[in-house]
């Protein structure tokens, strides 16, 4: 026996549906601006650390693009890069020793990173918890709209949260379900109001908890290991120029 359709009050969209959507958008914009104001200013990286990374990129670029050089240029660069990569001239920190894993938590920079993570989590969860409590308190049990397209019964748990009516048509949407639809579906609105980049950052804050900061110390590859590995790659690099036989190739194509 088919379940008869419900007759919904048209005023629901003005007093329930639109207020929930408006509050969600407003809180998202406010949180984005507050997060921007509370975010710490980026710190300049030390000169030696930048030089270490750039020299390693230079060596990797030589390995990837050596085909544009002739034999003499490759030989000269190989000799220079292998000599420097096997030395400590471009290390950011010389004489690094193995550190105690627990000593990383005493680093002020890591403590500041964890504090910033805690602030981000608070800015993410507190507003959403308040909005969810507000929707549950004032609009619990409301059926606010009917979808204009058919959906399968698998969507019933997602669209009718808070409505204990097993025989209700799955196309009807409850108020708390509309909250979740807005929570994960407001990206186009944020993109229109804030721009794509800011909208992506805001959506990522809403959907997942910010990860743990990258604690320094043991765990990552050391500079000497990266340099030596790159030196070995350059040492076995063969000479194969893209200009070899270019005249014959051009003439053969014509």
Automatic annotation (TrEMBL):
Keywords: Membrane, Transmembrane, Transmembrane helix. The chain crosses the membrane at residues 14-38, 125-145. The keyword Membrane applies. The keyword Nucleus does not apply. GO terms for biological process: phospholipid metabolic process; phospholipid transport; protein folding in endoplasmic reticulum; protein insertion into ER membrane by stop-transfer membrane-anchor sequence. It is found in: Membrane. GO terms for molecular function: membrane insertase activity; protein-folding chaperone binding. One of its GO terms (cellular component) is EMC complex. It is a multi-pass membrane protein. The EMC seems to be required for efficient folding of proteins in the endoplasmic reticulum (ER). PANTHER family: ER MEMBRANE PROTEIN COMPLEX SUBUNIT 3. Belongs to the EMC3 family. This is ER membrane protein complex subunit 3. It comes from Suhomyces tanzawaensis NRRL Y-17324.
């Amino acid at each position: 026996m088919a379940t008869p359709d419900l007759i919904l009050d048209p005023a629901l969209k003005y007093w329930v549906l639109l207020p929930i959507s408006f509050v969600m958008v407003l809180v998202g914009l406010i949180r984005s601006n507050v997060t921007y104001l509370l975010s710490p200013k980026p710190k300049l990286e030390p000169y030696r650390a930048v030089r270490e990374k750039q020299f390693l990129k230079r060596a990797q670029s030589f390995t990837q693009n050596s085909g544009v050089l002739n034999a003499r240029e490759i030989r000269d660069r190989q000799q220079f890069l292998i000599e420097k990569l096997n030395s400590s001239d471009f290390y950011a920190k010389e004489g690094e020793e193995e550190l105690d894993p627990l000593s990383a938590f005493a680093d002020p920079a890591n403590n500041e990173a964890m504090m910033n993570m805690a602030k981000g989590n608070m800015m993410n969860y507190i507003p959403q918890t308040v909005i969810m409590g507000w929707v549950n308190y004032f609009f619990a049990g409301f059926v606010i709209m009917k979808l204009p397209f058919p959906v399968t019964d698998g969507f019933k748990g997602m669209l009718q949260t808070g409505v204990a009516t097993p025989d209700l048509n799955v196309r009807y949407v409850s108020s708390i379900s509309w909250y979740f639809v807005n929570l994960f579906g407001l990206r186009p609105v944020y993109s229109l109001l804030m721009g794509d980049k800011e909208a992506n950052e805001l959506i990522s804050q809403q959907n997942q908890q910010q990860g743990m900061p990258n604690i320094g110390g043991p765990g990552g590859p050391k500079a000497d290991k990266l340099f030596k590995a790159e030196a070995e790659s350059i040492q076995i690099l063969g000479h194969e120029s893209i200009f070899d036989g270019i005249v014959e190739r051009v003439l053969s194509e014509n």
